[in-house]
Design brief:
heterodimer; A: 317 residues; mainly alpha; MetI-like fold; 13 helices; globular; B: 293 residues; 70% helix; disordered N terminus; disordered C terminus; cell membrane (chain B); transmembrane helix (chain B); transport (chain B); BP-dependent_transpt_permease (chain B); OppC_N (chain B)
Chain lengths: 317, 293
């Protein structure tokens, strides 16, 4: 277990190094002079010189890379041009908001995706199954930001049930938090719930056709117990495997969703950074989210091996 | 020599008439075909469907709800939404098409190099791992933010994001096919690497590739909408679906159709492509798994 965890962490290091190099390279993708683009049309030569110095763009490339890594290892991702504070500080300050909504959305995804998938599989080829399949397909085909806007029109503008945007911290007012976080969480959850429904349904169908399920039924166990105890354990495995993917879609979706609902999380932070050409923030945010996802994926894989003895025996994938 | 290795090659999968019959019998494929075909046809025939210029202003007709004169209503400047959605489709579909062509070319090239030349495999796949560690849309946003907003930027950003995923699919199927007996036979017969790869291995890797490309097309349309929505796609003078949604966003209260209609167009297209992909997967190889995301 510990050995596997350590080997996974070691494997992540080269990936993390390339990821950071790509994040570092983003500012060098800017066509022409980066300082001119960042400074905008009104920048004076002195402004440009200051931008270059601040970002280290006046240094040779290899020095820039070395400085970047030296800073990175000290947790320094540079300083936001827009906010004037360190990127790490800004990201850490905003992350609880994004994490809160991500967890809410994840719970919705898993509960809804699993339930729909299992119900569909249990009613294989009946109308419930078809409805669930259609729902799942539509779910994976809708743009989530569009869904967010349609929900605003429906639930805020017409029905007036929920506020069009804004954010109330959970610690201040839990009900207020649910009122502001529900539409963003649902908008983020729908696509993944569709994905999960599809995976759960096909796995469940496969599991239900296995011999041990027939044996369990032959023993006279109630259908509820057959599904709940015998089948569910094996259906959970693919759920764990797609967790990483679900989290990745959740976090990247948060840029647009948080911007639409005016939620001050990491997503909105990045959205603003894009709008104001705050490249250190874009690079730092990109690296931070990806690094967090890599770690989460390792946690998921370790979880997976501890849940499934078959993988533990063969020593991981 | 040549005839020996040719005889060993399997028939090209697209040639079989049975396959076409299976496709037409597959409900998912047919539904996807109809939906996506409908969108493509509407896009191509846009000038016949509507006479109105998508950019013609008519302040008198602003915010008209859907009517006989304007089937999908008009926007804040009195522009006809039907023609804007139809002409917007051109850009969205064109970007999607460019992305899958780039995906096909570079995905096959890199996947073949990694799968066939094992020495390159490690380095290529580590780079692919790193690129795939980024959430897809996030990396595209990062690249597009640096390159500056344009349609070409969106194409490059989306291609960079999805090529590693396609290369993985190609590599995975090459790893299986290269061990088959007939490939060994071709090698024993003295065929060159290039010939083995092009004539014997790649044709048998086409099925997963085609399925993957249909999904990449769907993702590309969705992601392009996100990029446009964030102001990182084509400039607003050319309406793409994402831009139409972001323009409509300011008028959610008075004219919700401005937002709803282009989103529905995206949904129909992506749904069609997803169904096509599902159907193709069932028809070409039921056991096949495609990397999502």
């Amino acid at each position: 277990m510990i050995g596997y965890t350590i080997s996974r962490l070691l494997q992540a290091i080269p990936i993390l190094l390339i990821v950071s190099l790509i994040a570092f390279g983003i500012i060098h993708l800017i066509p022409g002079d980066a300082a001119t683009v960042i400074g905008g049309p009104s920048a004076t030569p002195a402004d440009l010189a200051r931008i270059r110095e601040n970002l280290g763009l006046d240094q040779p490339l290899h020095i820039q890379i070395l400085t970047f890594y030296a800073n990175l290892f000290q947790g320094d991702l540079g300083r936001s041009l827009l906010l004037g504070i360190p990127v790490t500080e800004a990201v850490l300050a905003r992350s609880p908001i994004t994490i809160g909504i991500a967890i809410y959305s994840l719970v919705l995804t898993i509960v809804f995706g699993l339930a729909t998938g299992i119900i569909a599989a249990l009613n294989h080829n009946r109308w419930i199954d078809q409805a669930a399949t259609v729902f799942a397909l539509i779910g994976v085909s809708l743009p989530n930001f569009w869904l967010a806007l349609v929900m605003i029109v429906l639930f805020s503008v017409h029905l007036g049930w929920l506020p069009t945007g804004g954010y109330v911290p959970f610690t201040q007012n839990p009900i207020g938090w649910f009122r502001t976080a529900t539409m963003p969480a649902v908008a983020l959850a729908l696509l993944q719930a569709g994905l999960l429904t599809r995976i759960t349904r096909s796995t469940m169908l496969e599991v239900l056709s296995q011999d041990y399920i027939r044996t369990a039924r032959a023993k006279g166990i109630s259908e509820w117990r057959v599904v709940g105890r015998h089948a569910l354990a094996n259906v959970m495995m693919p759920v764990v495997t797609v967790l990483g993917l679900i989290l990745s879609v959740l976090l990247s979706g948060s840029i647009v969703i948080e911007t639409i609902f005016g939620i001050p999380g990491i997503g909105a932070l990045l959205g603003n950074a894009i709008a104001s050409r705050d490249y250190p923030m874009i690079q730092g945010g990109l690296f931070f989210i990806t690094a967090a996802l890599l770690l989460l994926n390792i946690v998921v894989d370790v979880l997976y091996t501890s849940l499934d003895p078959r993988i533990r025996v063969t020593g991981g994938k | 020599m040549t005839s020996l290795s040719d005889a060993a090659a399997p028939p090209r999968f697209l040639r079989t008439r049975a396959l076409v019959r299976r496709m037409f019998a597959n409900r998912a494929f047919m539904l996807g075909f109809v939906l996506f075909g409908f969108i493509c046809l509407a896009t191509l025939l846009a000038p016949l469907i509507t006479r109105l210029d998508p950019n013609a202003l008519s302040i008198r007709d602003r915010f008209q709800p859907p009517s006989l004169q304007f089937p999908l209503g008009t926007d804040n400047l009195g522009r006809d939404m039907l023609s804007r959605v139809l002409y917007g489709a051109r850009l969205s579909l064109w970007i999607g098409l460019c992305v899958i062509v780039l995906n096909a070319v570079f995905g096959v090239l890199l996947g073949a190099l990694a799968g066939y030349y094992r020495r390159l495999d490690n380095i290529l796949m580590r780079i692919a791992d790193a690129l795939m560690a980024f959430p897809a849309v996030l990396l595209a946003i990062g690249i597009a933010a640096a390159l500056g907003p344009s349609a070409v930027t969106a194409i490059i950003a989306l291609a960079v994001v999805y090529i590693p995923r396609t290369a993985r699919v190609v590599r995975a199927s090459i790893l299986v096919v290269r061990e088959l007996d007939y490939v060994q036979a071709a090698r024993a017969a003295g065929a060159t690497d290039y010939r083995i790869l092009m004539r014997h291995i790649l044709p048998n890797c086409m099925a997963p590739l085609i399925v993957q490309l249909s999904f990449v097309f769907a993702y590309a349309i969705l992601s392009e909408a996100v990029l446009s929505f964030l102001g990182l796609g084509a400039p607003p003078t050319v309406p793409s679906w994402g831009i139409l949604i972001s323009e409509g966003r300011s008028y959610l209260r008075e004219a919700a159709w401005l937002t709803v209609v282009p989103g529905l167009a995206i949904a129909i297209t992506v749904l069609g492509l997803n169904l096509l992909g599902d159907g193709l997967r069932d028809v070409l190889d039921p056991r096949m798994k495609v990397e999502q995301g």
